[in-house]
Amino acid sequence: MRILLVEDDATLRAQLRTALVEATYVVDEADNGRDAHFLGDTEPFDAVVLDLGLPQLDGLSVLRRWRDAGRTLPVLILTARDAWNEKVAGIDAGADDYLTKPFHMEELLARLRALIRRASGQASPVLRCGAVTLDTRSGRVTVDGQPVTLTSHEYKVLDYLMHRPGTVVSRTELTEHIYAQDHDRDSNTIEVFVGRLRKKLPGELIETVRGLGYRLVAPPCG
Ligand code: CA
């Protein structure tokens, strides 16, 4: 899952980045509204953490422009303490959730998980597909209740697919959601990760849809 992190305070941005990366997300960053707007307009993100007080273009304007352009990506805004009117304005501008500074990192991560699962129609933090479970809180994956050890990339691929059971996901789409923008991307590596996942999980779980991509098939999933 790929997050756009928009915060002009360098210290807070670094703390957020560290926490997000530890929580298995890949992160693109912006420290001003113009860059944030451009990135959110041109790259596919699974969620955005958007500070409202930003140089060049304020966060509310960034959010309004995305929504005016039909961008539906989940957005969590960061508001100043005691600024209740910012929350109202933010939600009315199209924010999906808000958090008031200062906040606990655990709360931010929980809210992001909720936004991401709601956006893909999942209700539970534990995703299930046949014999496989993936706990989005702990990053634990099990098969028939037995823990399975995955590399970071294998986990990212499985996490993305398990949020979309039954849906065909192309290699390009997977590549865009498991690597940040500045990363040297090679969609051939997706095949390698899927090959390794098939050895660690029930073989029939990930179906190859010729010419299109991959699909989780073992029902019931959700
Ligand atoms: Ca700020």
End-to-end separation in angstroms reads 17 Å
Work out the number of β strands: 11
Strand order of the largest sheet: 2-1-3-4-5
Task: Estimate percent helicity.
Answer: 40-55%
Unreliable segments of 5+ consecutive residues: none
Helix/strand structural class: alpha/beta
- Based on Cα principal axes, name the global outline: elongated
Mean pLDDT: 94
How big a fraction of the residues is strand? 15-25%
Q: What is the tally of helical segments?
A: 8
Nutshell version of this structure?
With 222 residues, the chain is an alpha/beta fold. It contains eight helices and eleven strands.
Task: Describe the model.
It contains 8 helices and 11 strands. With 222 residues, the chain is of the alpha/beta class. Helix 4 (84-92) links the parallel strand 4 and strand 5 (97-100). Helix 2 packs parallel to helix 3 (59-68) and helix 6 (152-162) crosses helix 8. The longest helix is centred in the middle third of the chain and has 15 residues, at 105-119. It is elongated. The two termini are 17 Å apart. Bound molecules: calcium ion (CA). Calcium ion is lined by residues 8-9, 51, 53-54.
Keywords:
alpha/beta; binds calcium ion; 40% helix; five-stranded parallel sheet; 222 residues; 21% strand
SSE blueprint:
Elements: E1 2-6, H1 10-22, E2 26-30, H2 33-42, E3 47-51, H3 59-68, E4 75-79, H4 84-92, E5 97-100, H5 105-119, E6 126-129, E7 132-135, E8 140-143, E9 146-148, H6 152-162, H7 171-178, H8 188-200, E10 206-209, E11 213-216
Helix pairs in contact: 2-3, 6-8
The protein binds calcium ion (CA).
Residues 8-9, 51, 53-54 line the site of calcium ion.
